Amino acid sequence: MLKLFNTLTRKKEEFKPIESNKVRFYACGLTVYNYAHIGNLRTYIFEDVLKRVLLFNGYDLKHVMNITDVGHLTGENLGDADTGEDKVEKAAKKLGKTVKDITDFYTNEFKKDLNSLNILFPDIWCKATDHITEMIDLIKRIEANGFTYQTGGNVYFDTSKFEHYSDLGKLKLDDQKAGARVNIDKNKKNPRDFVLWFTESEKFKDHLMKWDSPWGRGWPGWHIECSAMASKYLGEQFDIHSGGIDHINVHHTNEIAQSESAFGKHPWVKFWLHGEFLVLEKEKMSKSLSNFITIRTLIDRGFDPLHYRYLCFTAHYRKQLVFTEEALLGAKQSFEILKSRIINLKNEVQGEIPIEVNEDQKYYKEFLTAINDDLNMPRALAVVYDLLKANQIENKEKLSLLYKFDEILGFNIKDFKEESVQVDEELERLVQERQTARKNKDFKRADEIRNILKDKGYIIKDTPEGPKLQQI
Question: Fewer CB within 10 Å: N-end or C-end of the chain?
């Protein structure tokens, strides 16, 4: 039985799709004005696990992810997402590029990052600028149902008319006061109202991307984009919507309000799932704070992207994960030791390894229980290590189970293989000294040298052909 924590109800619930065995899943994608930082990518790793778990459980899955290339304003960082500059246009002006140059480049880089982390791509990528017609049509429906007003040239959603506005964030409406925000759009009747459509007012006369609409030439607000695209591909009600925890109180709350006001159905989405922050010394990572680290940064420091994937599995997706280089080094070491143990298994097993799993097998049941308990990856990793230590199971069965588990882990275990290490004079001296110590039964010195090699980033393995080094 798959249980997921539903932000809407604030509890773990048994997951049952709206339509038997078919799951429709929307994940908020990247605003493509800069590289994804590893905090962003932690969310996409959690969503990848969610997708893999749904597939593992045999669901027929349709997965949609948007690319935001218009309408996401810098005012979000100051408390009002309807103020400031368009993030994409700001980047284009700063770099002297066209908007298309910027969005194409960072979309491609985002996809490279997902590939490097073995994150499965969505079935449908949808760019905001390709769906302006759908956004206009959705705003028309909201307007016809009496939930909008126009002022200052813009079309606003009137949150006072939507009874369930605070349900997702579990906030009292009085908690969202104008004084709590730094930069407020003065045209709003109240601070929680939001823009559905901007027009060419004096304030936004230099905006580069504009389209004709019934309310004047302009462009969509950020929140309407996801509602329009999700509904186009997944219908007016669907199963799962996910994103980062920072989207709960504004972006996703606004998506619910506008969607349910248009479609007249409640709830619009059955399950809402949110991943917690990756933090640096108790501060969330963000581009606006200029404290973000990219996958390229990690690679330049000698890490494999899969070391970061492993690190993310050491904490539950709903718990904050503190990022330090020491923590990543620990994840690297653990991953490489795991890899080494699996390579040893593969070396001991001859022939093809079919993925044939007995569903009553102890470790399979424990692994399934872990992942079906709200994607409990720390527990799932523990099962992997328990399996590797189990003496009562043949190596062939162990490998078969590991290959099956890798449908969730995403480590590409089948591709694990020994890699040659360039041995310099110092490493060669240490290896030979250890061999001499072992020959003389000086096991204390042999262990000391093993630890010295480990500190230098190497595992030493004793084989019939002699000692071999593997980099970690």
Answer: N
Supply the range of the domain harboring residue 376.
Answer: 295-415
Number of domains observed in the structure of the chain:
3
Same domain for 449 and 404, yes or no, is no
DSSP letters, 114-166, are HHHTTPPPPSEEEEGGG-HHHHHHHHHHHHHTT-EEEETTEEEE-GGG-TTTT
Per-residue confidence band for 207, with pLDDT thresholds at 50, 70 and 90: confident
Task: Give all strands (DSSP E) within 230-280, no chain letters.
Answer: 238-244, 269-275, 278-280
54 and 180, same domain (yes or no): yes
Phi/psi at 47 (nearest 5 deg)?
-70, -30
* Residue 286 covered by a domain: no
Rounded to 10 deg, the angle between the 222-234 and 253-263 helix axes is 50
C-alpha 396: how far from chain center: 33
Q: Which residues pair with 269 in a beta bridge?
A: 238
Q: Which helix (H) or strand (E) segment is 296 a member of?
A: helix 295-300
* Nearest-angstrom CA–CA distance, 79 and 76: 5
The residue count of the chain comes to: 472
**Which three-class secondary structure state does DSSP give residue 384?**
helix
In a domain, 283, yes or no: no
In this model, does residue 455 exceed pLDDT 90? no
* Cβ neighbours for 283, distance < 8 A, ≥ 6 positions apart: 289, 291
Instruction: Give the Cα separation of 113 and 235 in Å (integer).
Output: 29
In DSSP notation, 213-231 reads -TT-SEEE-HHHHHHHHHH
Residue 62: both structure tokens together: 């349709």
Half-sphere exposure of 97 (CA within 13 A, CB side): 16
**Which pTM value belongs to this model?**
0.88
Six-digit token string for 365: 């049941």
Q: Is residue 77 part of a domain?
A: yes
Q: What is the pLDDT of residues 39-82, one digit of tens each?
A: 999 999 999 999 999 999 999 999 999 999 999 988 887 778 88
E strand segments, 57-177: 60-67, 124-127, 148-151, 154-157
For residue 317, give the nearest of 397, 378, 265 by alpha carbon: 378
281 within a domain of the structure (yes/no) = no
